[in-house]
Amino acid sequence: MSQTRKSRLVPEVDYGKDGKQAGFIRLFHSTHESAYGFLPIPIVVVKNGEGPTALFTSGNHGDEYEGQVALTNLIKFLEPGMIRGRVIMMPMANYPAALIGRRVSPIDDLNMNRIFPGDPDGTVTRQIAHYIDSELIPLADLVIDLHSGGSSLNYIPTALAKQSADPVLYQKQLAALRAFGAPYTYIQGGAQGQGGDQTLGSGADRRGSIALGTELGGAGAVNASGLAIAERGLRNLLVHLGILGREHWVEPPVATRFLDVRGPEMYVYAPENGVFEPLVELGDAVVPGTPAARIHMPETPWLPPVEIAFKAGGIVMCKRIPARTKRGDCLFHLASDLAG
Amino acid sequence: MSQTRKSRLVPEVDYGKDGKQAGFIRLFHSTHESAYGFLPIPIVVVKNGEGPTALFTSGNHGDEYEGQVALTNLIKFLEPGMIRGRVIMMPMANYPAALIGRRVSPIDDLNMNRIFPGDPDGTVTRQIAHYIDSELIPLADLVIDLHSGGSSLNYIPTALAKQSADPVLYQKQLAALRAFGAPYTYIQGGAQGQGGDQTLGSGADRRGSIALGTELGGAGAVNASGLAIAERGLRNLLVHLGILGREHWVEPPVATRFLDVRGPEMYVYAPENGVFEPLVELGDAVVPGTPAARIHMPETPWLPPVEIAFKAGGIVMCKRIPARTKRGDCLFHLASDLAG
Amino acid sequence: MSQTRKSRLVPEVDYGKDGKQAGFIRLFHSTHESAYGFLPIPIVVVKNGEGPTALFTSGNHGDEYEGQVALTNLIKFLEPGMIRGRVIMMPMANYPAALIGRRVSPIDDLNMNRIFPGDPDGTVTRQIAHYIDSELIPLADLVIDLHSGGSSLNYIPTALAKQSADPVLYQKQLAALRAFGAPYTYIQGGAQGQGGDQTLGSGADRRGSIALGTELGGAGAVNASGLAIAERGLRNLLVHLGILGREHWVEPPVATRFLDVRGPEMYVYAPENGVFEPLVELGDAVVPGTPAARIHMPETPWLPPVEIAFKAGGIVMCKRIPARTKRGDCLFHLASDLAG
Amino acid sequence: MSQTRKSRLVPEVDYGKDGKQAGFIRLFHSTHESAYGFLPIPIVVVKNGEGPTALFTSGNHGDEYEGQVALTNLIKFLEPGMIRGRVIMMPMANYPAALIGRRVSPIDDLNMNRIFPGDPDGTVTRQIAHYIDSELIPLADLVIDLHSGGSSLNYIPTALAKQSADPVLYQKQLAALRAFGAPYTYIQGGAQGQGGDQTLGSGADRRGSIALGTELGGAGAVNASGLAIAERGLRNLLVHLGILGREHWVEPPVATRFLDVRGPEMYVYAPENGVFEPLVELGDAVVPGTPAARIHMPETPWLPPVEIAFKAGGIVMCKRIPARTKRGDCLFHLASDLAG
Amino acid sequence: MSQTRKSRLVPEVDYGKDGKQAGFIRLFHSTHESAYGFLPIPIVVVKNGEGPTALFTSGNHGDEYEGQVALTNLIKFLEPGMIRGRVIMMPMANYPAALIGRRVSPIDDLNMNRIFPGDPDGTVTRQIAHYIDSELIPLADLVIDLHSGGSSLNYIPTALAKQSADPVLYQKQLAALRAFGAPYTYIQGGAQGQGGDQTLGSGADRRGSIALGTELGGAGAVNASGLAIAERGLRNLLVHLGILGREHWVEPPVATRFLDVRGPEMYVYAPENGVFEPLVELGDAVVPGTPAARIHMPETPWLPPVEIAFKAGGIVMCKRIPARTKRGDCLFHLASDLAG
Amino acid sequence: MSQTRKSRLVPEVDYGKDGKQAGFIRLFHSTHESAYGFLPIPIVVVKNGEGPTALFTSGNHGDEYEGQVALTNLIKFLEPGMIRGRVIMMPMANYPAALIGRRVSPIDDLNMNRIFPGDPDGTVTRQIAHYIDSELIPLADLVIDLHSGGSSLNYIPTALAKQSADPVLYQKQLAALRAFGAPYTYIQGGAQGQGGDQTLGSGADRRGSIALGTELGGAGAVNASGLAIAERGLRNLLVHLGILGREHWVEPPVATRFLDVRGPEMYVYAPENGVFEPLVELGDAVVPGTPAARIHMPETPWLPPVEIAFKAGGIVMCKRIPARTKRGDCLFHLASDLAG
User: Succinylglutamate desuccinylase/Aspartoacylase catalytic domain location, by residue (chains A, B, C, D, E, F) (predicted)?
Assistant: First the structure.
C-alpha cells in the first residue's frame, strides 16, 4: 500500500535539471522545539543531458563513515561537464542518525535498513526510506548503498550484492562489482540477521535497479584502505556505466575474489554474557573446530571462561568490536569462495 | 580530610590471612530497587607468609578489557604454594562501569580515575576510589593499574608511569617497567587531560608505592598482543618483586623503548565538529607539519574539509576511534624518546 | 481501513442525552505502573433538544493554552437552558501532552495533529485521534480546533481554515470565520510543514463538517488578547449556528482581515545552527529583501553572524521563540491579503 | 493482513521432531551495540509420537513470575518417555521485558498482551506476538498463558478464560479449567481495560485452541500458593489432555469456584492523585456502598482525604499495590458467582 | 563544617508561635522550568505553651506510606487546646521523592537517609537533610522517623531504635518504644547496609534527642495493620511525653517483644541474577540451614536453580518483594530476641 | 578551602599580553565518548598597556541570549588600538548549557549561578565557576554578568546590582549603573530564590570588584530592546572606566530609575498545579489586592480556577512564561522605587 501513497518530503533540487545542484531534502518534523521546522537531508545532483543514472547513498547507518567521506569528496569532484547522464549523491541518508554517529535514528529508534520500502505516513525514518524507495530509486539504473561494520562490527573492506532473482540483473550486478574492484566481493544468499527484503538494496532490486553494497571497514571509524577502495570503486562504476569517460578508470591492483555467505553456521554468536576475547583476526582462514573466542566473566573471575569454536570453515570477514557482549551477539561471520 | 575517615565498604576476604581467598567487596548501595543490597566488587587475594605485596587493578575504566582478561586469567593461575608474599587482584575496580562496558559509572557518571583519593561519604565511585586509596594501596609495595584506550581511543600496547617526585621511587618505577617489558614505555610528565594527581596511580605514588600503569590497546575491544604483553608483564613483575620464583620469568623479545609525552603540542585536537579521517596510523613517526587528519562535514558536503597537521614530532601512540567528533576531542597524541 | 474499526475508548458521558454532562473519556492504557488504569480525558457535553452540534477542541498540542482556558471557562458558563442543540467541549484533546505542557505526547512522542485519522489499534495518541475522528467529528456540524504557536512559535492572534475542496463548505467556513471575528484570518493553501491532510481539521473537512482553527498566541503562555478573541469568537460561533441566542453575540471591534499563506517562500528557515536574533516583530509588513534575522555563533564569537532576508513580502504572522536554533528551524512565516 | 506474512524469527528447535529440545527462538534485532545479534527467546519442546499439543507460555508480561517459575520447573521435569504428544514451553514470552522484570518491553515500550495478532514487520514485541500467533498457536490444541497481577496489582490466585464464542470450545474451556483446579476461576465477559481481542488468549481462541489463563498472585513477586496451584494445574492439564498419564494427576483440595467479572461497575478507579489506602483485602466480600479506599494528599496534609465506596457487590479479586496513585488507576476489581 | 553554616530553606511557619500553623518549607530550586520557584515541603506545627517537643517525620524515603498517612491523619486531629508543648509534623520529608513515590530523590538521585547531617550548599536532598538536622532536630526532645520497607522490601510492622551510645538516652529510647507499643521492636547494633551514622535517626541521637524509628510494612503499599500500629503509637508517644493527656492513651494489645539484629549472618543476599522464589514468610522462625530461597533462571530454563539456606537462626523480619533480582540484593533479614 | 586550590582549566590566551587574543579555555572532561578531550569555552581578551580591566560574562545561564549576542558583537568591534587597559569577554560562561540553550548544565545538572565560588575538583560546572572566581575575577576592576529571564521568566530590560557591603564599592556600583543607563535598575537586597552569596556577582563583590548584572528580557529569546540597551551599556561602562574614549559614549535617552526588591511579599507564587493565566503585564503598576493571576485546571474543567492577588504594590518587573505551572513556581515579582 505504501508504494502508492505520495512522499511528504520536499527536495530543494530538481532531479530533471541539468547542472550541479546542492541542497536539502526537507522532511518536515513538527516537534516541541520546532513546530514548523524540517530536517535538512543533504542531496547533490549532477546531470548532463541524457544518459544513465547512478544513485550513491551512505549514512543509511549513521555510524558507518567511509561511504560518507567518499561521497563528500566525490560531490566536490564531479562537475556536469565531466559526465553524461546523472549522478545523485545522498551522503547522510539517515540524517538524524548520521548527525550523531549512531546506527539507528535517535528520533524513532529505527534501523533504516530494516524497514524498506518505508511508509510516507510513518515516523521519520520510515518517511526517509519511503522517499528513497519511491522517489530516488525509480530514477536509477544502478544503486550502491555504502556500508561498513558500524560501531559494533569490523569488516575486511569488501563489496557485495544480494543476488537478484532476475538472472539478467544478477549478471549486471557481477559485472558492476568487477568494475568496482574491491579485493573481496561477497554475494548474500540467505544470510540471517542482515535485513532480508527490508534493506535499501532489496528495494532497489525490487524496482529493477542494479543493486550493490559494500562493507568498507567499521569500528565506527574511517578506515584508510576502505576509503581508498570506495573512492576508486565509485569512479570506476561511473566509467562502467558510461557516465564518466575511460580516462577516469583506475585499474584495481587485483581482480576481486568472489565469496559467498551461505547459512547460519557461517556465523558465531555469543553463548553467554561476558567479555569477548577474539582468537582469530579478520582475513584468517579457519576450519570447523578452529577456536574462535573466549567469553570471560571478570565479575566472578574465579570461574573458567567459555570457549567457542567455528562450526564451518572459511575466511573471517567480520568481527565484533565491543568486548562486553551479551548472549546472542554476533562475534564473527565467515565467507567461502563462490561456487561457479 | 577524607583520608582519616573510614571506608564503609566491607570485604568478604581477610587480607592478612594466608591462602587463596575469592569474594566480593560489598558496597552497600540503597536504591529504590534494592534497599539493603550491595554492589559485589570482585576481589581475590593470594598470600603465603611474609613478603612483598603487589596490587593489580583493572576495570578502573569499565571499557578497557585487556587488563580485566589478564587478571581473570592470573586469578585462576596463582596458588599460594607458588608465591612468597601477597598478590591482591581487583579485576573490575569500577564494578558498575565494567559490568556494562562504560568508561564511567552509570550510577554517578563519574570517571574513577579523576577523583582520587575519593571520599567515603561520596557517591558510589568516590567510595570505591577511597577504599582502594585508603585500604588497598597502603598494603602494597607495587601497584599496577591496567588501562587501555577505552571506547574512544586506541593505543600501541605500552607500559607507563607518572614520574614519582621521590627519586628513589622513580628508580624503582624504571626498574619495574623494564621487568614488565612492554615494547614501549612512556613516562608521563605534565600530560594534559590525563588525570593529574587524581588518578589511582597518583594515589599509589602519594602513599609510597611503586606506581605503574599501562595502555594495552583500546577501541573497547580485547587486543591480542596487548593481552599477551600484560600476561607476561604481570608475571615478570611478580618475579621482579620476589613474589614468584625466577622459573616464571619470560624474557621480553625486545628491551622496552622509553618515551615521554611532554607538552600540549604533543596532542592533536579536533578544531570543528564533523567526521574525523585519520591520515596516520599508530606507530607512525611524524614531524611538525605532517598532515594528521581531515574533518569532513557530510551534512553540508559541498564545503571543503578542515585539514590539521602535527605541531610536534614523535611517534603516534594514540588515535581516536569514533569518526564523528566534536571540537576539543583529542585525535592523537605523540611521544618522543626519553632524554637521558 | 482504520475508519471501519471501532474505537476502544469508553466515554463516561452519553452524547445523545439532554442536559450537562461532565466526565472523562477512558483510554485504557496498561502500563507497568497501572495494569488496568485509564487515561482520563476530560469531556463536557451540553445538550438541549434538537439542533446543530458544535465540537470545540483544544490541547491537541499540549503546550497551547488560550483554547484550553477559553473552553474551561465556557464549560462553566454554558447551561442546557441557554442553548438549542449541542456543544461538545474537549479542552485537553491530547491529554497526556497537555498535562505536562508538551506539544507531543510523552507516551509515544507523537504529534496528534500529524496523524489523523488515527488508528484504534495504534499507540495512545493514534487512539485519541481515531476517537475524535470516528466518534466525535461525525456528530458535529462545525468543528473548531483551538491552536496557538506553542512553545517554539508565537503568532498574532488569528483564526484560520484550510480551504475545503467542497465550495459550499468553503463558503460556510468563510461565514463562520467572519462570525468568529478575529482581527486576522488566514486561509491555508499548500502551506508546508503544517500537517497537510493529517490534521484534526482535515479530518473534520473530510467528514463534511465546517472545519475551523485558530492561532491565538504562543510562546507556551496564555496571551490575554488571544484569550479574549477566543472567548468572544466561540460564543459568536454558537450564535452563528443558532445554538445560542442573539443576546450572546458580541460584535468584534473590526471585521476580520482575510489573508492567505501561499508557498514555501512565505517561510524563513534557519540556514545554520546558532543563536537567532529576529530583526522584525509580529505584525510588521515586509518586502522581499527586508532583513529578517541574524544567526550568531557565540561558541566562536570571532566569526561573523549569518544574515537572512525575506524572499517574499507580507505581514509577519509567526515568529520563532527559542533563540538557540538549528538548521531547518522555521523562524518566521508571512501572510498576504487573500485574493478575491 | 499480518496473518499471511511470514515471521522472520528463527527457532533453534524443530517442533516436529521427537525428543526433548531446548534452545532459543532467534529474533534478529540490529542495534548500535550489536548489528547482527539476536534476542535469544528460550523455548523447550518435548515430543513423543502422535498426540495432542499443549502450549504453555509465561512472561508475556515480564513482571509476572509464578508462571515463569512453574514452567522453568516443568521444563526440567518433563521427559519424552513420560508423554504422548507434545508440550511446547515458552517461559519468557516477552523476553526483553522478562529479563528486566518489566510489564512492557524496554525496546519498544509495548505491552505484548495488547497487540495480538502482532506484525512480522513491526517492532520487536509485535514480531514476538506474531510468531506466537502464527507459528506456535496453530500447533496447539490447548494454550495456557500464565499471568499474575504484575508490579501494580495483586490477585487471589485464580484461573480464568475469556469465554469462547464457539460453544463447543467454551465447554472445553470449562472442562480444562476444572482440571486445572484453581480455588477460583473466573470467566471474562466484557471486562474493560483487560485487552479485549488483542491478547494472546484471544489469538488462541480465534485459531480454535482451548484458550486459558491465570492470575496467580502479583506485586512483582513469587507467591508460594499461586506457584503451587500452577504446578499442580499444569500437570493436571497434561493429564486432562492425555499427554501425561493419570499417575500424574493431583486432586485439587476443593473444586474450583466459578466467578465472572461483568461490567465496569465491578472496577474501582482512583478519582484523584494521591496516596491510596485500601480499606478491604483480597478475598473480602463486599456490597454496594462498602468503603473501598481513601486517597490521601500528604503534600497538603491539612486537606481531607477522598473516600471511595464500591458500587457493586462481590469478592475482591484484585487490589492495586503501589500507594502513590493517579486519577484513573484501577484500585480493585470484584467478581461474582457465575450464573448457571 | 556543615553544621555551622546556615540553611537556605525558608519556613512559612514560626516554630516558636502558639497555635496550629500549616504551610511549606520553601526550598528555592532554580531550574530551566522555574528560575525562581521553590519546592513546597509541607510542615505543620501545633504548639501550646511550654512543654516538650516531638518531631514526627515520614516520607524520608518517598515510597514508604504508612507514616505519611498516619501523620496526614494526625495533622487533622491535633489542635492546640489538646496539647501542652509542641508537635512538629513533616509528612513528606523528602518531598520530591514522596511526590512521585520513589525511595530516592528524582532531582539528585540521593537517598536522604544516607546523607545526614546534610549540607546547606549541596544538592536538593542534602539541603533538606541539613535543614532537618540543623533546624528541626535541635528543637525536639523526641524524634520518630516513620519508615516501612519501601518498594523493594516488606517488613512485619515493627518499631526500632539504633541504640544510643549515651546510656541515659538508651533507657529513654526503650521507655518510649514500650509506649509506642508495636508488637515487635528491634534494636539496631551493627546492622550493615542500613545507613550507619548517616540516617536522620543518627542525626537526632547525635544532638541528644530520643531517636526512634519504625518499619511499618512495605511493598510500596499502605499496610492496614502497620498504619493502625503507627496511629496508636504516635498518640501514645505524645502521652508518654506529656504532650497529650492520659485520656489519649490506647493500651497496646500485647507488650512489645524486643529483638536485635546483630551481624551480617542475619542477612541473606542473592548469589546470582535471576528470579527470586522465597521459601519462608515474614514472621517464620528459622534455624541455620533452613532453606531460604531459590534463584531461577528462566532465560536458560534447562539449568537448575541456585538454592540458598539461612546461616543464622531467628525470626524473618524482612523479605524482598521484586522477584527479578541481582547478585548482592538483600532477600531477607532475621532478628533474634534481645539479650538482657 | 576551594580558593587555595588551583584550577585545572587551561586557557589558550595569555591575559597579560597586549593585543587581541581569541581562543578557548580548555576544560578537560574525560568521557566515554572522548577520553582526553576538552570542553572549548570561548574567551577573548583585548589589551592595550596599563589601565583598568573589565570582565564581561554572559551565558552563565545558557538560555539567556541578549548578553551572548551583545558580547559576540563587541568581540568583533573592539580592537587593541581603541582601548587603554583590558577587556575580557566570556560570552558562553557555562558553555555546555549555552550550547544547547538550557539554564543548567546538561553534564551535571547544576545552575552555575548557585554554586560560586565553585570547586576545582568538582564536576564540570563547579570547575568553571571556580575558574571564573579564582582566575578571572581577581584580574577585574569591574565585572558585569549579563542575564535575562531565561526560558521560564520574562523581564523588563533592566540593570541591577546586589548592594555591596562595602559602602565605597556600593557607590561605585551606583555610578557604573548610571553609566550603563538601562531604563530601570534595581538593587537586590534580601531577594529570595535569587542565589544569595552563591552567584558570580557575589563572588566578584567578595573579591572587591564592582559587581553588576542585568535582566535584559527573557522567554529564551533575543529581545531587541534589551539587546540595544546592553550594547550601549557595555560601551558606556568601558568609557566610564576609562578603557574606551568619550567618543564611544552614547547618552541613554532617560536616566535610569532606581528600584529595589525587598521582601518575600514582592513575589507571587503558584498555589496549585495548573494553567497560569496572567492578569497583568510587565511594567504595570499594582497595589496590594490587584488581581495577579488565575490558575485553571483543564483536566477537571468543571472546577473553578484559583485566583491570586498581589500582596504588595510596585511595578511588575518579571513574569513567568510557561502556562503549565506547579505549586511553588514564581509567577511575578515586583519592584518599588529605591528609598533615598
Answer: 51-241
